[in-house]
Every structure is written in structure tokens, then in C-alpha cells.
Recover the amino acids of this structure.
């Protein structure tokens, strides 16, 4: 999902300066420069993550890039990954 991101500090300065005048704040915030961004997933949080243990160490292999055989760092990231379902991991199936 592509998003337009702005600087949080700049937006907060406008909100404070306009003191509740939401129309003015909205107009000024909408004129702030934005960057195109794409959501990424860290390897440590990705459901495509495959941990392999061998005689020379433990490796994280990318399940989305198996053809290339890339070993990924835990803090690596890409736009192909999908967020792992944390609820299953942390809640242990409790509703």
C-alpha cells in the first residue's frame, strides 16, 4: 500500500500554532511536502522467514526469495514480506 508521509513534527507545529482552527490546520498540513513510501516488513517479523541451523551458525533465509538463496539479517527488510500473525504467537490461541 503506497502512502504519502509527512514530517510528524511539522504537522504538530501547525496544530499548535493554529490553536484549534481545524480548517486552517488541515489546509496547511495538506500543503506540507510529502514522500512516497511503501510499507516494508522486517525479516524478524516476516511470515516468510525461515530459520536454518547448520554446523557454521544460524541463518535467516527469505521464504519469498528462495530462488536467490539469500541469507537475511534479522533487521533486514523488503517490500515483498508479509507481517507475521503475532496473535497466534503471543496469545497462544486465546480469544
Amino acid at each position: 500500500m503506497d502512502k504519502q508521509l509527512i514530517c510528524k513534527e511539522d504537522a504538530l507545529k501547525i496544530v499548535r500554532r493554529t490553536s484549534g482552527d481545524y480548517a486552517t490546520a488541515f489546509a496547511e498540513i495538506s500543503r506540507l511536502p510529502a514522500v512516497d513510501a511503501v510499507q516494508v516488513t522486517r525479516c524478524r517479523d516476516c511470515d516468510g522467514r525461515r530459520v536454518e541451523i547448520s554446523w557454521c551458525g544460524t541463518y535467516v533465509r527469505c521464504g519469498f526469495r528462495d530462488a536467490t538463496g539469500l541469507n537475511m539479517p534479522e533487521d533486514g527488510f523488503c517490500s515483498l514480506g508479509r507481517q507475521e500473525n503475532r496473535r497466534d504467537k503471543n496469545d497462544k490461541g486465546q480469544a
About this structure: Helices lie at 8-18, 22-30, 86-91. The first helix runs from residue 8 to 18. Residues 88-95 have pLDDT under 50 and may be disordered. Residues 40 and 79 are 5 Å apart (CA to CA).
